Amino acid sequence: MTFDDNLHPLAEYIEIPSGVTLLSGKNCHEHLNRVSSIDISSKFLKREESILCDLHGRIVGHILHADLEDQILLVHNPENAKEIRNILSTGVPWNEDVKVSTGDGAVHRLIVVGKNPGRVLIGLGIVANDLEQDSWTEFFDSMICLLAQTDEYTAFEMLIPTQLLQSVKEGFETNGGNQGEADSWLALQSLTGNIDISIESSKHIPFELGLANLIDLKKGCYPGQEIHARMESRGIQARIRRCLSSDKQIPQGKARFSEEKRIEILCSHRLGDIWISYCLISTKLDVNGEISIEASDSTITATFV
């Protein structure tokens, strides 16, 4: 499936609803490393993603990091912000300096995506070719990095404080960019097999969501590590991620399709005239093509893509 027709010739700026947490104190890196699924870098302005899990190996939060040396800015799904902060506030030794602060509404996450976003960014004084994929670049009091680059599109990610948000948006408009919908970016993520940090993924196993790259079993103990190690050694994975397209939005949650087979819809987002849904199905099922999903009050026809 191509999404080329839905791409702006220059760029769209898309605000993604986010929760924001600030981790500070001289021991903030050690503590985040202790509870996170990967070995956290302490490199200044490093861009990373990690997972916080419970003792059963299930996701509590999928978080984006911006390392500010003596502080770490964490961006995540707003719906489970409380649970994420509870994990971050737990298990801090009495002799360590770690502070967890709420930053909701203080920082905004923008995705800038299109066929030629560099022409829009240059009007803001940002040279796109200087931006790196795993590092934030500061401009004024904001940050930007290269997020994805393909033959069809280029995407950048920005973290912008509230006081600058309106002026940045106006700068995009002045230089040929348009405001886009979050649905289009999230649908694009689903089509490319990715799950955005803003998607509610709690209580799921990371391997099922294709997040094995955010699990480092060699780093030492973290909540859920024993379960993850057991699953990897036994090759156990009950479900795999798939993507569906349909003419109607498929309700989030568990449902049935052909011959009582089960499916779970994690999210469904609009892309042009169709809906793109990120779903999980059993690894035992070999299904492709068209299926009929039994929604609460109707049957929705969808196609695996």
Summary keywords:
305 residues; alpha+beta; Gyrase A, domain 2; Elongation Factor Tu (Ef-tu), domain 3; 2 domains; 6-stranded mixed β-sheet; 6-stranded antiparallel β-sheet; 6 helices; 18% helix; globular
Quick synopsis:
The chain is an alpha+beta fold. The protein has six helices and 17 strands.
Topology overview:
Layout: E1 12-16, E2 19-24, H1 28-35, E3 47-53, E4 59-67, E5 71-76, H2 81-89, E6 99-102, E7 107-114, H3 118-121, E8 137-139, E9 142-149, E10 154-161, H4 162-174, E11 178-179, H5 182-191, H6 225-234, E12 239-246, E13 253-257, E14 261-271, E15 274-282, E16 290-294, E17 299-304
Parallel strand pairs: 1-11
Antiparallel strand pairs: 1-7, 2-5, 2-6, 3-4, 4-5, 7-10, 8-9, 9-10, 12-15, 12-17, 13-14, 14-15, 16-17
Describe the structure.
18% of the residues lie in helices and 36% in strands. The protein has a 6-stranded mixed β-sheet with strand order 8-9-10-7-1-11, covered by helices on one side. Strands 13-14-15-12-17-16 form a 6-stranded antiparallel β-sheet. A 5-stranded antiparallel β-sheet has the order 3-4-5-2-6, with helices on one face. It starts with 11 loop residues before the first strand and ends with a strand. It folds into 2 domains: 8-234, Probable tRNA modification gtpase trme, domain 1 (Gyrase A, domain 2, 2-Layer Sandwich), CATH 3.30.1360; 238-304, Beta Barrel (Elongation Factor Tu (Ef-tu), domain 3), CATH 2.40.30. The chain has helices spanning 28-35, 81-89, 118-121, 162-174, 182-191, 225-234; strands spanning 12-16, 19-24, 47-53, 59-67, 71-76, 99-102, 107-114, 137-139, 142-149, 154-161, 178-179, 239-246, 253-257, 261-271, 274-282, 290-294, 299-304. It has 6 helices and 17 strands. By secondary structure, the chain is of the alpha+beta class. The model has no long low-confidence stretch (mean pLDDT 93).
